[in-house]
Amino acid sequence: MASSIASPKKLRRVFVWELPVRIYHWLNALAIVALIATGYLIGNPPALLSASEASERFFFGWIKFIHFAAAYIFFFNFIFRIYWSFAGNKYAHWRNFLPISKQFFKDMWAVIRIDILLKKDTEHVAVGHNALAGFFYFLTFLAFILQSITGFALYANMSDWWFADLFSRAGWLFWNEEFAMRNWHHATMWFFIIFAMVHIYLVFYHDYVEGRGEISSMGGGWKFMEEEFFEKKEEKETKAK
């Protein structure tokens, strides 16, 4: 009687995420958590009752300090990631994020069928970012820019450092209305909250369904891909020649 258990597939260990990308990822995650937590408190200050003198308490001062410090980490970490999209390996390259070809849109649709429509009759294999993830990271980069501009423009009124003052002239983008800048800054915060929830869910989903080390790859940099994937790829490249 033939066994119904499928034979295990041969896997190849592939180094995908370089150390700078992994550092960027976790530093960015920590900065965003700090910014969201402190930003929410800044927008909705809690009513704290205390019998001590106001001069002896610096609770809200620490909240703002953590927010501003995390903002600088967030900004310069983002600038470094832009640089690494040119200096890093092919999995970190900027082309993985911009829909500049028909194949990119085809790959996006293939991922939508799997992730959203939950089609079981199809599979899209991507060693690095899949096309849909790459496109949403591109939208996230745009949100980074908007959040940085509005945040530092609001901070410029409280800072005497030349760097923050560079953003003070960005007010014209929002009709020189500080209220409008605060609203955009607050709305973008919710974009990051929703993005983080979807991102974490999909990482666990793909790790469970595909079993290629999606979660651990952002710790050690390695993924495990089927040898069959590379054989098909090499065969396709050979025919193309």
Explain what this protein looks like in three dimensions.
The chain has a domain at 11-43 and 58-137 and 186-226: Fumarate Reductase Cytochrome B subunit (Up-down Bundle). The chain is built from eight helices and two strands, in the order E-H-H-H-H-H-H-H-E-H. The protein has helices at residues 19-43, 59-87, 102-115, 131-155, 162-165, 178-210, 217-220, 227-240; strands spanning 11-15, 222-226. It has a two-stranded antiparallel ribbon. The radius of gyration is 23 Å and the shape is elongated. The chain starts with 10 loop residues before the first strand and ends with a helix.
Approximate shape = elongated
The quaternary structure here is single chain
CATH topology term of the domain at 11-43 and 58-137 and 186-226? Fumarate Reductase Cytochrome B subunit
The CATH architecture of the domain at 11-43 and 58-137 and 186-226 would be: Up-down Bundle
The share of residues in helices is: 55-70%
What's the β-strand tally?
2
Mean pLDDT: 85
Order of helices and strands: EHHHHHHHEH
Main sheet strand line-up: 1-2
Helices, by number, come to 8
What Rg, in angstroms, do the CA atoms define?
A: 23 Å
Helix/strand/pairing class, anyone?
Answer: mainly alpha
Strand content: under 5%
CATH top level of the domain at 11-43 and 58-137 and 186-226 is Mainly Alpha
Could you give a short account of the major beta sheet? 2 strands, antiparallel
Which blocks of ≥5 consecutive residues have pLDDT under 50?
1-6
